[in-house]
Design brief:
Helices cover 43% and strands 5% of the residues. By secondary structure, the protein is mainly alpha-helical. It has a domain of 74 residues. Strand 1, helix 4 and strand 2 form a beta-alpha-beta unit. Helix 3 crosses helix 4. The longest helix is centred in the middle third of the chain and has 17 residues. It is elongated, with a radius of gyration of 16 Å. The two termini are 30 Å apart. This is Putative Fe-S oxidoreductase. It comes from Neisseria gonorrhoeae. GO terms for molecular function: oxidoreductase activity.
Length: 127
């Protein structure tokens, strides 16, 4: 697991939120999809969707991951003539989740222990 993902989990857990993290999870499939490989992207998407059977929100590290899951996964499943039990995936970007929490200003991060600033971006309103 990349360090950024583990850092994201630490930030979320600092807020008292329990994190469900399937160790087998990987990418959303966006690199394959954007490279013109929809079959490979579908394989990745299906494997990831199977790891999240509950209808819990999935926190993603970037907007591109959320966009892939929200807008392109339905297309991939339609192309493959596959009808999963659940395809509407509630996703939220890490920056949006953290910015909505009242204690976001008191986060303990690696950046707060160094001389570099830590800023949470304000994401655009979701449609």
């Amino acid at each position: 697991m990349p360090e950024a993902g583990m850092d994201a989990i630490a930030l979320i857990e600092q807020q008292g939120i329990r994190v469900h993290f399937p160790m087998a999870q990987s990418c959303c499939g966006q690199p394959a999809y954007s490279s013109g490989h929809p079959t490979e992207a579908f394989d990745v998407a299906k494997a990831q969707l199977d790891l999240f059977p509950e209808n819990w929100p999935i926190v993603v590290p970037s907007g591109s991951c959320g966009g892939m899951m929200k807008h392109h996964w339905p297309t991939l499943f339609k192309i493959q003539n596959t009808n999963p039990k659940r395809l509407i995936v509630p996703t939220v970007s890490l920056s949006l989740l953290i910015s909505c929490l009242p204690s976001a200003t008191s986060l303990k991060t690696k950046a707060s222990q160094s001389k570099s600033p830590f800023t949470l971006p304000v994401p655009p309103a979701e449609k």
